[in-house]
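Risk mitigation, structural track. In case the binding assays with D-gluconic acid fail to produce interpretable data, a predicted complex structure has been prepared as a fallback.
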Amino acid sequence: MTLDFRRADFAEDFLFGVSTSAYQIEGHAYGGAGSTHWDSFAATPGNVANAEDGARACDHYHLWESDLDLIAAGNFDVYRFSASWARVLPEGRGTPNPEGLDFYDRLIDGMLDRGIKPALTLYHWELPSALADLGGWRNPDIAKWFSDYAEVLMARVGDRVWSTATINEFWCVSWLSHFLGHHAPGLRDIRAASRAIHHVLLAHGTATQALRAAGFGNLGAVFNLEHSTPADATPAAQDAAARYDAIYNEAFLGPVFHQSYPERLLDGIASHLPDGWQDDMSTIATPVDWCGINYYTRKLIAPAPGPYPSLREVEGPLPKTNMGWEIYPEGLGQFLRRVADRFTGDLPLYVTENGMAAPDTLAGGTVADEDRIAYFNAHLAEVRAAARDGVPVKGYFAWSLLDNYEWAFGYDKRFGMVHVDFDSLERRPKASYHGFQSALRRAP
Ligand code: GCO
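Fallback model:
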């Protein structure tokens, strides 16, 4: 089996790329980076599989040149990567780490040398510990801290990046990390979650304004969207699914594109939002140039007794990835249409992440990851159909280039198109990598 599309199936200017993130691949122990809340979260028993952290990860910090060679040889147009706040500013504020700035400088020049467009994300979850000590995303000052960090980094590299995203996945930064407690800082508190929701949005808007004022363009943000399906046909299940959708999806699209929170979210968080939150909404809705969508799966949602949000996830019937996530490509097509219709209009949309974890057995120096190829094919077919219907989707970036640190799952879950041996650090392209390589090859 191989990837069943060609470049000619998409518009001439449609971009294909791969995505990664700093903490998941770089090796946080190297190059003078400061401690992050993921380091202490991982060091706390029970939070992360095998208590693994990102200290070494894929050692991309030292192996970046050969990793960029892989992206170029794979015929990808764009590399979506992130910078680590604590590598740039070890204390979160104050004196920059020259080695950190040099690293991103070299990395970006390395992309340009190879004809790859650098798509920078400013925050993909590794909050500096010094700021976590001050309350992290619960502290309203974080909007300014984040914006200052954005300006420091962009002053160094902003002249050469192709695009810049402020935040990766608002829902994960706030709800997953402060209400469900699955990610750092591991809180389970509705008030903390409400503050984090508002402040991560405000940080996005504040930094977008500052970067715009400093003359930078092609600014956007990345939303992770999850399809919410009622577990059955009862009104109660439909209501619960709508609540899940409000918390997961509309909670962030609503403020950024319509300057308002959905009612079904305010039902749970209004009494916990900071005083005067209404005054921040226009900053949050500062115009962006593009919108990124990360899409993986759907959830079946049923009502549950107890306080807000009074819902639970039910196991679904569809085939699942190694994360236990149902494979539901239709959800991606639906989101592309819905986001364009209801939120972004003519703004370019990019699928900034999509991919799957698979069991992946290494045989003969490679991995025949047919299940991953089928996943990419099914999701790319949805993107193609949406584009054909006039949705302004302008690119597709696969998650991920390398097997890497999958957060609370440690190194157990493999999402890469390139296999990584976490002892030797050897990289071995899988069949899915070769599939993209041939589908994306341009006639000489
Ligand atoms: C996310 C993150 C990635 C994950 C990937 C697989 O979407 O959660 O951006 O860091 O590794 O999504 O879970």
